[in-house]
């Protein structure tokens, strides 16, 4: 698959969404327990391209993406409870996007960059699963699509991405204590 999302828990790796080698949406949420890949569940809807997935507590959150194999971004957030194996909807993103990146810091999901059907974005939104609410935080210094991100020592590093065919991103370090880069 390609244009998919991957996350991990303490005991498994989860891969979901994207397209297969025929260009068709992949609906299975696959789980790898260290020995074997198996289908955990099926995504609701017709599929997603370039969403993000994060696990907070025992819930897997699928955030945004492009619907099926289109360039139509969605603001939907699907929540899958790993214990009850049930899907539900969480509060939608402040605006639709795909090709973004998400990381978890202090039990909250931070979503950076990406794009919609018209532009690349610099947006930085934070989701609090405890209150099921989003808030906008300091945007990236510039718009980037398809960046990567990691959390190190309480700070978020947003790495690379691009805003055009030859305009590649830099490394931005976000400090949540000051809401700045």
Description:
By secondary structure, this protein is mainly β. It is 0% helix and 42% strand. The strands form 5 sheets. It has a 4-stranded antiparallel sheet with strand order 1-2-3-4, with no helix packed on it. A hairpin with a 4-residue loop joins strand 3 and strand 4.
Give a quick set of tags describing it:
17 strands; 42% strand; globular; 4-stranded antiparallel β-sheet; 181 residues; mainly beta
Instruction: Give the strand order of the largest sheet, numbering strands 1, 2, ... along the chain.
Output: 1-2-3-4
Mean pLDDT: 96
Order of SSEs, N→C?
A: EEEEEEEEEEEEEEEEE
- Segments where pLDDT lies below 50 for 5+ residues? none
Give the percentage of residues in beta strands.
Answer: 35-45%
The geometry reads as globular
Distance between the termini: 34 Å
Q: Tell me the helix content.
A: under 10%
Q: Total number of helical segments?
A: 0
Radius of gyration: 15 Å
SS-based structural class?
mainly beta
* Tally of DSSP β-strands: 17
Major sheet size, sense and barrel closure: 4 strands, antiparallel
Q: Which helices and strands appear, and what pairs or packs with what?
A:
Blueprint (H helix, E strand, L loop, with lengths): L4 E4 L4 E4 L11 E5 L4 E6 L5 E2 L2 E5 L2 E5 L2 E2 L9 E5 L4 E5 L10 E5 L2 E5 L11 E5 L4 E4 L11 E5 L2 E5 L11 E4 L7
Antiparallel strand pairs: 1-2, 2-3, 3-4, 5-8, 6-7, 7-9, 9-10, 11-12, 12-13, 13-14, 15-16, 16-17
Quickly describe the structure.
By secondary structure, the chain is mainly β. It has strands at 5-8, 13-16, 28-32, 37-42, 48-49, 52-56, 59-63, 66-67, 77-81, 86-90, 101-105, 108-112, 124-128, 133-136, 148-152, 155-159, 171-174.
